[in-house]
Structure formats: C-alpha cells, structure tokens
Design brief:
With 411 residues, the chain is of the alpha/beta class. The protein has helices at residues 14-24, 58-70, 88-94, 133-137, 158-161, 169-176, 187-190, 195-204, 243-253, 262-269, 320-331, 333-338, 368-371, 388-400, and strands at residues 2-8, 37-42, 75-80, 106-110, 116-120, 128-132, 140-144, 146-150, 154-156, 211-221, 230-232, 236-240, 280-284, 309-314, 343-348, 362-366, 378-380.
Length: 411
C-alpha cells in the first residue's frame, strides 16, 4: 500500500508544512543518513518565478535541503535540466535559487553540462537511456515537482519531472519526443500512449527516487500549461516515497483518473508503485478537501481553432498530437486566420491516404503517425511534436509558395 502525506499549505507555511509532511512519513531520518550525498531535483523548466505556478519554490527546496543537512547529509546538490534550449543555471538564478545555495553544503548543478551514464534497458520503447552520473552516484534522490496540468500528458507531477527534467536537450528531442524521420507507433504500442508517455516511464523507472515532495502552493492549468496557462492557488504540499501513488493523488486533484494518464499507468504496470486510490493511505488532509475548477490543458475538442483550418482527425487510442495541435491552433487563431489561406491539417494515422484535392488547400501532416501519409505539404515531426514553433514554421513555409498555389494572402 502506498502512503501519501497531503497537507493544506499557504505560501507563508512552506517550511512548517514540509517538515510536517515528512514527519507523517516517519521523518527525514528514515531516508537520509550521516554523510549521504543528496540530490534534489526541482522543476525549473524556465526562468519564471514560482508564484506563476510554473516552477518549484526555492523556499520549499531550501526547507528540504536543510532537513537533509540536519539529518547528517554531507552535501545537497540542487540539479536541473531546464526546457529544451534554456540555460538551466540561468533559469535557477532567475527563480532565486542562487540565494539558497552556499556553494559548499548546498550547490546548484546544470545537468545538461554534467556527465551522463549510458544504461541498456528493456523499456517500452527505449533500449538505452542516458542518466546524469550525479543521480547514479547519489545516496538519496528527492524529487520536488510542481502540481501542473499538461497539454501533451494531461498532468506533470513527479514521474515526468524525473525523466524529461533530467535529460539532455538531444534526448529531449529524440529519445523523448521522437523528433525526426521516424515511423509511427504500431497499433499495439499506441495502447500505452504516445512515444513520450512511454519514454517517460522508461527513464523514470530506471532512475533512483527516494522521496517525492510536491510543491502545490500554486498550480498551473489551462491553455499552454505547464509553461504558460493560468495560475491556480491549490495551497497544498504532498510527500511520499511511492512515486506512482503521489502522482495518482495529484492527478485526482487535477481532475484526472491516473489510470487514464498514460505515463502514470505505464509506471504502475511496470511495478513502480500503487495507483489505486482505494489502496493508497492518504495521511494529513483528505483528497476531498481539495476541489478546484480545473481548466484542462489536455484538450482534443478542436474548439477555438482558426476558421480557415480543417482538421482530418485520424487519432484513436493516443490523442497527444491532437491535443498539442489544438493548443497551437487556438493560441495562434488570429494570426492564422489573417493569412487567409485554407489549410488542411492531418493528425493521427487512421484515415484514408489522400492526394491533394482540387481545392488547392495547403496541407500539414502533424506528428509521426500523420507523417506516414504524407503526399505533399508540410510535416511537423514528433510523438508528439514538442514545439509550436515547428508548426508555425511549417505554415510559414507553405505560405512562401502561395503564389505557385494560386492563393492570395493578406500578409
């Protein structure tokens, strides 16, 4: 049976509540011993203050670090691999982490610039992974994610933070998002979600995790989360030594059944922890005490897309590309409509192969599954694609040929 400490927590109560949450699990001394080297992995995916709901509070990380040192730890390393293309050290400094590091007992580390260890594994999709050496060498690894909704994976809490958030930029592109000329997932593989959903499980299941302490003071939901979106004052702290259980409780609070969140269900099926809320002991406050009006980031409704875009939807079991594409289209609705170009966007793989129709529309194939049907037009690779920039560039590239296609635009 998994055990999760769940506590109401206001911003000025972080230190007190972190101590109480860990005490409910038996105390930090149950996990940290004398002379241990501890790695704390926050979620600092970008240079946005924790009050936006996008990143982990440095106050929470400092509280956990101090508890580890008081328990006898020799050193605490706060390690991060920020979002693709972002300097992790600069992001941590912008978020105030330089103020909690003393350079001796508490130090900051950019995982992207550190050494990686290659491990051969028998994963769902990955057969080898690269893990930061510091995580392999650590006696204790404490994961400190944020409670956030996610456009591609429904939620991002602990499991995703200690997989995507420890990977190099190259692995973020290829091992996790499968950016490139890759075939679509087989029908059987697709039952486990996108390549990303499965790669998250593969990496996390082969990474040591001693504790997870979730910063739920501010959550993030709505269009564009986990980076953009809307802040929500969830005012909570969670802690557990069961990575699946804590993500299951967090998913429930965010309005999702964890069995319907592919990377959490995959982790459960791999024996990484308990997912059934009826078999998880929640201590402190009750899940029912936390009720919020969540605006889900994962959205496959196609509501709000540009009027000049027609989506040919070939998705079935996995709809990560459909959700991601819906976000990009709705976010840039005005700009795309101003182009005054009729556009067909193909997503998924369960549709008939189509040749370019006589209406001379522009065509975009979104995601690796749709890419297997390409017949002219633009291709946005990934499983799912990770960047809205790729999509906008694809539209822009098509616009270059507007005169050849006999189409006019207002641009």
């Amino acid at each position: 049976m998994g055990k999760v400490a769940l506590l109401k927590c206001k911003p000025n109560q972080i230190k007190e509540k972190v101590h109480k949450a860990l005490d409910l699990l038996g105390g930090i001394s149950e996990y940290v011993k004398k002379d241990d080297m501890v790695v704390i992995k926050p979620n600092v995916l970008c240079a946005q203050d924790h009050e936006t709901g996008a990143t982990t509070s440095p106050v929470l990380v400092k509280s956990v670090a101090d508890m580890c040192l008081n328990a006898g730890a020799e050193k605490v390393i706060v390690a991060e691999s920020s979002n693709w293309g972002i300097d992790s050290m600069e992001a941590m400094k912008e978020c105030g982490y330089d103020k909690i590091a003393d350079g001796e007992k508490i130090v900051l580390m950019d995982l992207k610039k550190g050494e990686f260890v290659k491990k051969d594994i028998d994963g769902l999709v990955l057969k080898s992974i690269n893990i930061p050496k510091v995580l392999c060498d650590a006696d204790v690894v404490i994961n400190c994610p944020v409670l956030k909704a996610h456009t591609m994976t429904k939620v991002t809490i602990g499991i995703k933070n200690l997989s995507v958030g420890i990977s190099s930029d190259e692995d973020k592109q290829h091992s996790l998002h499968r950016i490139g000329l890759y075939p679509p997932l087989s029908d059987e593989m697709e039952k486990n979600g996108s390549w990303l959903d499965q790669a998250i499980c593969d990496i996390n299941s082969n990474t040591n995790t001693t504790l997870t302490v979730v910063d739920g003071i501010y959550g993030l939901h709505g269009k564009g989360a986990p980076l953009f979106g809307d802040k929500i004052n969830t005012n909570l702290i969670m802690a557990s030594d069961d990575r699946v259980s804590i993500d299951s409780v967090g998913s429930k609070i965010l309005g999702h059944d964890a069995m319907e969140v592919h990377h959490i269900r995959n982790s459960y099926n791999r024996g990484m922890g308990e997912i059934d809320l009826d078999k998880i002991e929640v201590v402190g406050d009750k899940i029912s005490d936390f009720k919020f009006d969540i605006n889900q980031s994962y959205n496959t409704s196609l509501n709000g897309i540009p009027s000049n875009v027609t989506v040919i939807n070939g998705c079935k079991n996995c709809k990560a590309c459909l959700s991601t594409m819906t976000y990009v289209l709705s976010r840039h609705k005005d700009e795309i409509e101003k182009m005054n170009i009729p556009i067909n966007v193909y997503v998924g793989k369960y549709f008939e192969d189509k040749k370019l129709p006589s209406d001379r529309r522009m065509h975009i194939y979104y995601g690796n599954c749709a890419g297997s049907h390409i017949y002219g037009g633009g291709f946005v690779p990934g499983c799912p694609p990770r960047s809205r920039r790729q999509f906008i560039q694809s539209i822009g590239a098509l616009d270059i040929y507007k005169q050849d296609e006999g189409l006019d635009t207002d641009r």
